[in-house]
Design brief:
It is a single chain. The protein starts with a strand and ends in a 10-residue tail after the last helix. The chain folds into 3 domains: 285 residues, Alpha-Beta Complex (2-enoyl-CoA Hydratase, Chain A, domain 1), CATH 3.90.226.10; 177 residues, Rossmann fold; 216 residues, Orthogonal Bundle (N-(1-d-carboxylethyl)-l-norvaline Dehydrogenase, domain 2), CATH 1.10.1040.50. The C terminus is likely disordered. By secondary structure, the chain is α/β, with parallel strands linked by helices. Helices cover 48% and strands 11% of the residues.
């Protein structure tokens, strides 16, 4: 076999080692399923084999299904398959369930020696074994993360896990994709034992010889589901409350979670063989939804490709950023210093005063202390990281820096000043990056003596938590600058997207449409509570008015005034502009940071909408349907993304979709802004935008690209092949 090695010892125990060639982690592929079928058959039929120990030849056990192999397939083809095709598709997805059922009913004891992480299908293989022992490795994870990419478990996870630990205990693992370290998996009952690393195989063999039981608990007479089944008094409440909580969290936007709940309920009413067929039916139903294909493509495949360097210029040699200068020790600069130092990079953190610089370093102290409290770091690690950060006012210490990241206030004069001071010291080969979120890079580069080495490196707040970095190319930015920026982002373990220069670039520009549309609605007389509820129901992480408070109203006002100044007579006034101006300039309501914005922020208790909003914008007697508001909030963001594509700000659909979800939280179930348009259908999207343009203004009018695609009945992922797209130039 290519992926497994089977050795039978003198006790008749078959040690099956899973070790896929050419891969860092094992995955479940069509070839793996075929080989598992072969060795399970051998184990069952060979009388000399008394039991089985299944382990991995790699550091981890298994990462789950091979999603690259799954890409395409039947994803999103609901309604397009004939009855015969549906039957064939079911048999294909049922193959793993059939296989694992044959493993647990082979008549011989099977032990899983889990030497590392076991996720998704990997954990499902483990659950089909009669005994599970894991290595004591706190970094290892056992879980079912399928729901995070729009899927559901398809190898028995929705049936074996609740039969082991009960519906309530398994819900966070299956519905939210949460993982467990071995110690917690033992405590919850997912596994039987934790032993020191290196002893998993010997302990598994011991169990087979001394205790080996070839029958699963649910196949024994008298078995009862922990906590009760769906028709038991206590078990019924699990589903009544669970469904209510699920809808409150997801607003029905995620088909996978709905199907998981159905598979749990229906599957726990019947014996295991029937339950597995039920799970496979819901698994196929999930695959047929466009959300699954979109989420897998964006949240798994595209993120992987971009993180590994899909947008990196092919002709540039690899670089290793060892020293970074961070200009500005505010929240952003302090965060950049922290993630850089955590990745082994020497950091010079510069501020106007030593007090400011020291305060910036203290941010790292606080974060490291939290890690120590959570047992994710040691005091030694803390001191090692802090030793890499030098807080100072002295630009001379930037000498030898490979990369500069400017993170000062959004003011061209201030940025020009620090650029000149840094470039007077740093090597000629150094790259200069600006963390600006709105000011065009080409304009900032005019103040640089080396505009070809000037690039935008836009982080998101808080830097230590947000996974995205937006790389912006100015008109003169060269490939070397892009390569260094991408190599740096990879080193600090973030995901990069690459965009061309424009006002607001991509993320700030498109995100701004969401919060502005909320304010436009307010100006139209739509009830604030209705606006906020519609925002939540779209799947956005925060409602539009609340989001404006979070990013601060005075920032919105500052950007608005700067844009007016820069565009002059070409600036297009929005209905909500007046509200922002009055809130900030007249009422001093700047948002959460000064405790008053669209919301009130009492010292005790939850925030609530400011009652004075009714005086700021009178509520109209007639209110629109919530679906119309949801449509406006989602369509305006997707429409602006399409404009960015048409204007060459974006040149890769992966950047658009990954950036929209990781950057500002565009509804993840859609797969991103361009996947959202494709899911609706470009022709239908254009028609609906035209209707909204007539009702709400020309900001909803589609551009030439969308109209051309609608005419051709095209889609973004058909017209623009992301695998062949080159770096922006």
């Amino acid at each position: 076999m290519e992926n497994f090695n089977l050795e039978v010892d003198s006790d008749g125990i078959a040690l099956v080692t899973w070790d896929m060639p050419g891969r860092s982690m094992n995955v479940i592929s069509a070839a793996v399923i075929q080989e598992m079928t072969d060795w399970i058959g051998k184990v069952k039929d060979d009388d000399a084999i008394k039991g089985v120990v299944l382990t991995s030849g790699k550091d981890s056990f298994c990462a789950g299904a091979d999603l690259e192999e799954m890409e395409g397939g039947v994803f999103g083809s609901s309604g397009d398959l004939s009855q015969e095709e549906m039957a064939a598709a079911f048999e294909k997805v049922y193959a793993l369930n059939r296989l694992l059922r044959s493993l647990e009913t082979c008549g011989k004891p099977v032990a899983a020696a889990i030497n590392g992480t076991a996720l998704g299908g990997g954990l499902e293989v483990v659950l089909a074994c009669h005994y599970r022992v894991a290595a004591d490795n706190p970094k290892a994870q056992l879980g079912l993360p399928e729901a995070k990419v729009g899927l559901m478990p398809g190898g028995g996870g929705t049936q074996r896990l609740p039969r082991l630990i009960g519906v309530i205990a398994c819900a966070p693992l299956i519905l939210e994709g949460k993982g467990l370290a071995p110690a917690k998996a033992l405590k919850s009952g997912v596994i039987h034992k934790v032993v020191p690393a290196g002893q998993v195989v010997s302990d598994a063999k011991r169990w087979v010889k001394e205790e080996g039981d070839p029958v699963q608990p649910w196949d024994k007479k008298g078995y009862a589901i922990p906590g009760g089944g769906p028709h038991d008094k206590d078990g019924m409440q699990n589903f009544v409350i669970g469904n209510s909580m699920l809808h409150a969290k997801t607003y029905g936007n995620y088909p996978a979670q709905k199907h998981i709940m159905s598979a749990l309920y229906e599957g726990l009413l019947v014996p295991m063989d029937a339950a597995l067929r039920i799970e496979s039916r819901y698994f196929l139903k999930t695959l047929l939804r466009p959300e699954a294909g979109n989420m897998i493509r964006t949240l798994f495949l595209s993120i992987q490709e971009l993180t590994k360097g899909a947008r990196r210029p092919s002709g540039e040699a690899a670089t290793d950023v060892k020293k970074v200068g961070v200009l500005g020790a505010g929240m952003m600069g302090a965060g950049i210093a922290y993630v850089s130092a955590m990745s082994g990079i020497e950091v010079v953190l510069i501020d106007m005063s030593q007090e400011g610089a020291d305060k910036g370093k203290d941010y790292s102290v606080k974060l490291l202390d939290k890690r120590i409290e959570r047992r994710r770091a040691t005091e030694e690690k803390k001191q090692e990281v802090l030793a890499r950060i030098t807080p100072t006012t002295d630009y001379a210490l930037l000498e030898g820096a490979d990369l500069i990241i400017e993170a000062v206030f959004e003011d061209r004069k201030i940025k020009a000043d620090v650029t000149a001071k840094a470039e007077a010291v740093i090597p000629k080969a150094s790259i200069f990056g600006s963390n600006t979120s709105t000011l065009p890079i080409t304009g900032l580069a005019l103040e640089s003596a080396r505009p070809d080495q000037f690039i935008g490196v836009h982080f998101f707040s808080p830097v230590d938590k947000m996974p995205l970095v937006e790389i912006i190319l100015g008109e003169k930015t060269n490939d070397k600058a892009l390569a260094v920026a991408l190599d740096y982002v990879k080193k600090i373990k973030k995901t990069p997207i690459v965009v061309n220069d424009s006002r607001g670039f991509y993320t700030s520009r498109c995100f701004g449409t969401y919060v502005r549309e909320g304010m436009n609605m307010l100006a139209e007389g739509i009830a604030p509570a209705l606006i906020e509820n519609a925002g939540k129901m779209t799947g956005m992480p925060v409602a539009p008015l609340a989001m404006t408070d979070e990013v601060s109203l005075d920032l919105s006002y500052h950007v608005q005034q700067q844009t007016k100044k820069d565009l002059g007579q070409h600036y297009e006034e929005m209905p909500g502009d007046r509200i922002v101006e009055k809130m900030v300039a007249e009422l001093d309501r700047k948002g959460r940071k000064n405790g008053k914005g669209f919301y009130e922020y009492p010292k005790e208790g939850e925030k609530f909408l400011w009652p004075g909003l009714s005086e700021l914008a009178a509520v109209a007697a007639d209110q629109p349907e919530v679906d119309e508001l949801k449509k406006r909030l989602l369509y305006i963001q997707a429409l602006e993304t399409a404009r960015c594509f048409e204007e060459n700000v974006l040149v890769d659909v992966r950047d658009a979709d990954v950036g929209s979800i990781l950057g500002w939280g565009f509804a993840p179930y859609t797969g991103g802004t361009l996947s959202f348009i494709d899911m609706i259908g470009v022709r239908k999207f254009v028609e609906e935008c035209d209707v909204m343009a007539q009702k709400y203004g020309k900001r909803f009018a589609p551009g030439a690209l969308l109209r051309d695609m609608a005419e051709a009945n095209d889609s973004f992922y058909k017209r623009f092949n992301p695998k062949g797209t080159k770096a922006a130039a």
